[in-house]
């Protein structure tokens, strides 16, 4: 893997190309990309994402970046349903496993009406690029490969870049370089090939 700063510096030139935003992925779907990085660079990557978003927002690039932080989405949904404080109480009384199951049920993860997927789908705009972040913060409640699999049928007009603290080798995801998430074959590795 190329040094992190070299890879980060490739993001803006790549996403600003019209060909990137119109790129078709595997199976003639819109391109999904995974920017994997060593977990120790989490704060550097977060800062760089902020920099890129501001650069695109204040520039004349003709598109916008919409960031979806999986952890923040989870908290927002729980709060909007009035369940956030209740989940804190469940964790205090019954432990993490019980609260994790309660949250998964509330969010309807992996069902046809998954609230994380609906949240993202309802906020995607034409002529944008999606940045999917917060993968490490949301684990183990929200699994990155599940989100990507469930987004494919509903987000097919704009490219998506998932920022993944770990390793993606083109077929499997290893979160934090320790936790085998699952196989995922439908995304391209970002920033080494471009």
Characterize the structure shown.
- The chain has a domain at 4-69 and 128-189.
- 45% of the residues lie in helices and 20% in strands.
- It contains nine helices and seven strands; from the N terminus they run H-H-E-H-E-H-H-H-H-E-H-H-E-E-E-E.
- Helix 5 (84-94) runs antiparallel to helix 6 (96-107).
- The longest helix has 17 residues, at 42-58.
- It is globular, with a radius of gyration of 17 Å.
- It starts with a helix and ends in a 5-residue tail after the last strand.
Largest beta sheet, briefly?
Answer: 7 strands, mixed
The strand count comes to: 7
Which stretches of 5+ consecutive residues score pLDDT under 50? Answer: none
Overall pLDDT confidence: 85
Report the β-strand fraction as a percent range.
15-25%
- H and E string: HHEHEHHHHEHHEEEE
Termini gap: 13 Å
Query: How many H/I helices?
Result: 9
Q: Give the CA-based shape.
A: globular
Q: Return the structural class.
A: alpha/beta
Q: Mind telling me the C-alpha Rg?
A: 17 Å
Main attributes of the structure:
single chain; 194 residues; 7-stranded mixed beta sheet; 9 helices; globular; DUF1788 domain-containing protein; BrxB
Task: Outline the secondary-structure elements.
Blueprint (H helix, E strand, L loop, with lengths): L3 H12 L2 H4 L10 E6 L4 H17 L5 E6 H11 L3 H11 L1 H12 L7 H9 L4 E6 L1 H4 L5 H8 L8 E9 L3 E4 L3 E5 L4 E2 L5
Parallel strand pairs: 1-4, 1-7, 2-3, 3-4
Antiparallel strand pairs: 4-5, 5-6
Offer a quick outline of the entry:
Pfam families: BrxB (PF08747). The protein has 194 residues and is α/β, with parallel strands linked by helices.
């Amino acid at each position: 893997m190329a040094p992190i700063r070299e890879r980060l510096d490739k993001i803006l030139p790549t996403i600003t190309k019209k060909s990137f935003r119109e790129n078709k992925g595997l199976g003639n779907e819109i391109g999904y990309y995974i920017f994997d990085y060593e977990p120790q660079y989490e704060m550097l990557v977060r800062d760089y994402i902020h920099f890129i978003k501001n650069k695109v927002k204040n520039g004349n690039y003709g598109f916008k970046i919409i960031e979806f932080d999986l952890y923040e989405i989870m908290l927002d949904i729980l709060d909007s349903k009035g369940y956030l404080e209740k989940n804190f109480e469940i964790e205090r009384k019954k432990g993490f496993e019980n609260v994790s199951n309660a949250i998964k049920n509330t969010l309807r993860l992996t069902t046809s009406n998954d609230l994380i997927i609906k949240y993202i789908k309802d906020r995607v705009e034409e002529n944008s690029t999606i940045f999917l972040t917060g993968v490490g913060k949301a684990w183990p409640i929200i699994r990155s490969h599940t989100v990507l699999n469930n987004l494919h049928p509903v987000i097919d007009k704009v490219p998506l870049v998932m920022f993944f603290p770990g390793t993606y080798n083109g077929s499997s995801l290893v979160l934090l370089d320790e936790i085998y998430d699952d196989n995922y074959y439908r995304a391209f590795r970002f920033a080494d090939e471009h």
